[in-house]
């Protein structure tokens, strides 16, 4: 009796301090029970340790302390025959701790034991929910180890558990997660297409009122569809999903602003109503207004947001975030999110950039890049990541969250480099590339997959600045830094173009050595971007070999791909310029004039000075053939103006202190990182490559070599709530698979869930059934 009274007293005192927001005193009250010499019942100690662990995970970074409490609780629970809910809760939170500490083998073994227990108890609602929880976390651990088949098996088991309890949102979560895994591994088009169709079918079973209550699930599903379409270079159908995402983001942002205004007004009303001398008539009017405002807030909020005790899993920065800052994947009791709202918003901006840049919508793309970068900078500052912070300075528990935003930042910078190179703004491209380089040297493990992208962009920058030998070097180095056959082919095609631009016998021989094998493997590559770059380089080689008819066939095929599948205006312009020069070589002046006019129109739209100069040089040759002296002189005058503008921009870029370090034939140097191997294991799959077209230059037919760029190639991704990432190098589609608190189902204790960054992640759902017991 004495122990029970002491425990009740300390629990009550802990509740009091927690309501006041004094978490330190709350934890001291609870730990007094664990450290007391008074004998307590095992259940009392277990519940106390669970609550302490939940508070530590939610409000601090002391994961090891929380883990110790949970391991002790698990030992105590072994002697108790029932109390399954407590056992499941302990399993789930301890799994979360192991994940935060990157102890994946122990986590996997723990989850297997949890699933074994869940299958042995009466199969009621609670048991099925816990099975969903554990299967989602187990799938996440498999994803980190790149064991895709095992991950799919765990997710399928979770889907079956969700089906038993007829929970369509939960079914949709597992179905979308399976699509995420299929996109990550992409073994064949049919399997991915079937996963997409399955998502569409399940989504149709969810009523509209429920989808409105779980906006995170909508964003997750739509983003996966965008990743899928971009992977296929199906920009037309991808645009439909991008538009829906953009509209949903704007609507959600507007609603949250309205909610904040309503809550501010409610706070003011509460203050007014607290006055003891308030007249009864005025009090009644204010009370009525208060009721109206609360009804409006409830209408705009997810059902779970009104649950005061609902705790968010500690995964995203261990911060207590308001529901207005979350995009929930489902209603209570699951709750949870895929990525933080800010990361989702940044990702939507990135998708707008990816879909708009090939079309030359540079103004809108620049605006979205700025918006996305602003969001990311704010979040990095909240995480304590300033210009002085390096990878070795990060807390282990902060690696996942910081990795999400750092990966996104690299994606925006990559797009900025490509955009600025396309419109011949070399200084701006240089600045963005230097920023990428500096980020990589500060966070080499988290951003490991970005090294390939940086080397590729260094090659594009070097080519644009007329450093063709250096451009070839960096492209070849980039091909060595990826295991993706498609990306290797793209890099080698870039290198071949640079070699052909040099033009001497040795360089042409090196280009031939690259292009021959590449063209032979075209049919085995998975993307049209790779095929377009190879056909471009091959057509240029054939022109230099004077095999004009075969060159026309290859270039015509590449042009069709660039126009029909990629909608890449710069690549179309460059293909047209090559075909116009080819027609000129065949003395087909009528066709040459029409083709070159189209190319010049596109180049002007893109502000692409190298291609404009190349086309104007071709027009000079055309007018010489036709004997149109007046047109030739007028054209040459215009060309010289463009030439002077081009040389001014090149001189400014070459005069920068960063120019030499970017073009020099040397790989990036990085700072040493403590525990590099361990962190390497943690960040496996954070492979950064999106579908971002890159630039490649080619040689014009005039005496002066005008660089042009082949834009329209890409890069990768990842999965889970914290592993943002996996825009994997293999699939090169911005996949943030992070593991954040996907489904959290708990009132008193936070839980961890899976959805991790696959662009991304499979997610780690932390679902916990409602707390049935008091303390």
UniProtKB/TrEMBL annotation:
Superkingdom as given in the UniProt entry: Eukaryota
Family classification: Belongs to the SCC4/mau-2 family.
Keywords carried by this UniProt record: Cell cycle, Cell division, Chromosome partition, Mitosis, Nucleus
UniProt-annotated location(s): Nucleus
GO CC field: nucleus
Name of the protein in question: Sister chromatid cohesion protein SCC4
Main location (coarse class): nucleus
Gene Ontology terms: biological process: cell division; chromosome segregation; mitotic sister chromatid cohesion
Pfam families associated with the record: Cohesin_load (PF10345)
Matches recorded under PANTHER family: MAU2 CHROMATID COHESION FACTOR HOMOLOG
């Amino acid at each position: 009796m004495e122990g029970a009274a002491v425990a009740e007293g300390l629990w009550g005192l802990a509740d009091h301090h927690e309501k006041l927001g004094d978490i330190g005193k709350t934890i001291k009250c609870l730990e007094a029970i664990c450290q007391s010499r008074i004998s307590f019942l095992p259940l009392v100690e277990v519940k106390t340790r669970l609550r302490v662990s939940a508070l530590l995970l939610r409000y601090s970074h002391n994961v090891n302390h929380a883990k110790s409490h949970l391991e002790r609780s698990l030992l105590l629970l072994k002697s108790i025959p029932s109390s399954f809910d407590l056992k499941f809760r302990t399993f789930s939170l301890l799994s979360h701790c192991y994940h935060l500490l990157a102890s994946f083998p122990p986590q996997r073994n723990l989850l297997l034991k949890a699933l074994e227990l869940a299958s042995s108890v009466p199969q009621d609602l609670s048991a099925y929910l816990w099975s969903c929880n554990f299967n989602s976390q187990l799938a996440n651990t498999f994803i980190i180890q790149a064991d895709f088949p095992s991950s799919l098996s765990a997710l399928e088991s979770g889907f079956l558990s969700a089906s038993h309890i007829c929970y369509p949102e939960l079914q949709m979560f597992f179905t979308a997660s399976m699509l995420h895994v299929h996109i990550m591994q992409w073994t064949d088009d049919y399997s991915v297409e079937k996963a997409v169709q399955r998502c569409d079918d399940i989504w149709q079973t969810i009523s509209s009122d429920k989808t409105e209550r779980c906006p995170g699930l909508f964003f997750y599903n739509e983003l996966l569809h965008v990743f899928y379409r971009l992977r296929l270079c199906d920009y037309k159908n991808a645009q439909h999903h991008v538009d829906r995402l953009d509209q949903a983001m704007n609507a959600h942002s507007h609603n949250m602003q309205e909610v904040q205004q309503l809550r501010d007004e409610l706070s003011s009303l509460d203050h007014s109503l607290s006055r003891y001398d308030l007249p009864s008539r005025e009090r009644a009017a204010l009370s009525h207004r208060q009721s109206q405002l609360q009804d409006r807030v409830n209408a705009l909020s997810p059902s779970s947001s009104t649950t005061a005790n609902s705790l968010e899993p500690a995964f995203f920065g261990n911060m207590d975030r308001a529901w207005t800052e979350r995009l929930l994947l489902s209603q209570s009791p699951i709750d949870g999110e895929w990525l933080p709202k800010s990361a989702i918003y940044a990702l939507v901006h990135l998708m707008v950039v990816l879909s708009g840049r090939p079309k030359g919508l540079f103004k809108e793309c620049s605006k979205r890049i700025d918006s996305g970068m602003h969001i990311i900078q704010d979040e990095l500052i909240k995480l304590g990541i300033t210009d002085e912070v390096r990878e070795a300075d990060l807390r282990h528990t902060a690696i996942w969250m910081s990795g999400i935003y750092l990966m996104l930042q690299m994606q925006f910078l990559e797009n900025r480099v490509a955009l600025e190179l396309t419109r011949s703004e070399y200084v701006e491209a240089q600045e963005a590339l230097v920023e990428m380089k500096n980020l990589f040297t500060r966070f080499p493990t988290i951003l490991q997959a970005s090294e390939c992208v940086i080397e590729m962009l260094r090659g594009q920058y070097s080519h644009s600045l007329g450093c063709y030998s250096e451009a070839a070097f960096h492209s070849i180095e980039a091909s060595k830094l990826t295991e993706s056959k498609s990306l290797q082919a793209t890099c080698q095609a870039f290198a071949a173009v640079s070699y052909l631009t040099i033009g001497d016998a040795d360089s042409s021989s090196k280009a031939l050595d690259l292009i021959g094998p590449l063209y032979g493997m075209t049919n085995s590559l998975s993307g049209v971007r790779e095929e377009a770059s190879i056909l471009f380089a091959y057509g240029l080689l054939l022109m230099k070999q004077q095999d004009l008819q075969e060159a026309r066939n290859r270039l015509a095929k590449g042009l069709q791909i660039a126009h029909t599948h990629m909608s890449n205006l710069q690549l179309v312009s460059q293909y047209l310029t090559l075909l116009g020069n080819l027609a000129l070589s065949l003395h087909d002046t009528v066709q040459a004039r029409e083709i070159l006019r189209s190319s010049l129109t596109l180049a002007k739209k893109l502000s692409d000075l190298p291609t404009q100069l190349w086309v104007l040089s071709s027009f000079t040759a055309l007018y010489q053939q036709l004997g149109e002296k007046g047109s030739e002189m007028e054209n040459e005058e215009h060309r010289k103006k463009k030439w002077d503008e081009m040389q001014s921009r090149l001189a400014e870029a070459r005069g920068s202190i960063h120019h030499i370090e970017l073009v020099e034939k040397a790989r990036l140097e990085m700072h040493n990182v403590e525990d590099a191997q361990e962190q390497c294991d943690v960040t496996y799959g954070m492979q950064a490559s999106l579908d971002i077209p890159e630039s490649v230059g080619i040689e014009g037919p005039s005496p002066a070599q005008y660089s042009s760029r082949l834009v329209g190639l890409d890069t990768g991704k990842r999965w889970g709530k914290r592993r943002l990432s996996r825009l994997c190098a293999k699939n090169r589609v911005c996949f943030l698979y992070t593991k954040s608190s996907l489904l959290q189902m708990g009132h008193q204790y936070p839980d961890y869930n899976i959805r991790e960054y696959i662009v991304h992640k499979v997610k780690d759902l932390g679902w916990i059934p409602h707390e049935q017991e008091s303390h």
